[in-house]
Amino acid sequence: MPRRNIILLKVVVWILCLGPLLTLLAKGFHLINQDLGADPVSVITLTTGHWTLIFLLITLSVTPARRITGWNWLIRFRRLLGLFAFFYGCLHLLTYLWFDKFFHLSEIIPDIGKRPFITMGFLAWTLMLPLALTSTTASIRRLGKRWQTLHRLIYFSATAGVIHFWWLVKKDISRPEKYAVVLALLLLFRILLWLLPWMRRPREARSTLSRASS
């Protein structure tokens, strides 16, 4: 894909990724015909949590989409999408620390150990932290092959995030179930890539080999 098109697509992706935050701000300042309801903290917490999971799953979907379609330019957006997952994860955590606990460590620390869904959510964010810190080009060069190994933590972070949401809702688990199904399919694809080396080749290469053997 031409560089000009990539730049244009990146601008579009940035706008779309900032959309959930801009919508929350618009609701908070009554700029649209909606507001944050009677419990704004709950709305902000759930919205930022949902989008953290959504961006994690979209990030994990880049490799399967690239393998299936042969659109190698998709890889250029994986790091950006992963950073937006961390960004919304930070907003989600900040909402809890600030609006729910007012930064009172005497309440936060026992809460993390006492409530399993809080523990799992904190684990999900903690696993994302080293990924965000090593997302620079310099880190990729410095870590070499270890960078890929480290960034497989995203699967564990996404799993912890889905469990966090599942344990939070308790009764209506329809939405966390959908996230769990998508994550399971993405994990299955990763396992198949590991078990079947031919799947690691780009689609064009597989097509060439297929034509040559027929």
Summary?
With 214 residues, the chain is mainly alpha-helical. The chain is 79% helix and 0% strand. It has one domain.
Question: What this model shows, in words?
Answer:
The structure is a single chain. With 214 residues, the chain is mostly helical. It has one domain. The chain contains ten helices and no strands. Helix 1 packs antiparallel against helix 2, helix 4 packs across helix 5 and helix 5 runs antiparallel to helix 8 (153-169). The radius of gyration is 20 Å and the shape is globular.
SSE pattern, N- to C-terminal: HHHHHHHHHH
Q: Tell me about the largest β-sheet.
A: none
What structural class results from the helix and strand content?
mainly alpha
| Count of strand segments | 0
Contiguous low-pLDDT stretches (5 residues minimum) are 205-214
Note the gap between the termini.
Answer: 30 Å
Backbone shape: globular
Radius of gyration: 20 Å
Instruction: Estimate nothing, just give the exact number of structural domains.
Output: 1
Q: Let me know the average pLDDT.
A: 89
Strand content: under 5%
Oligomer: single chain
- Helical content stands at over 70%
Count of helices? 10
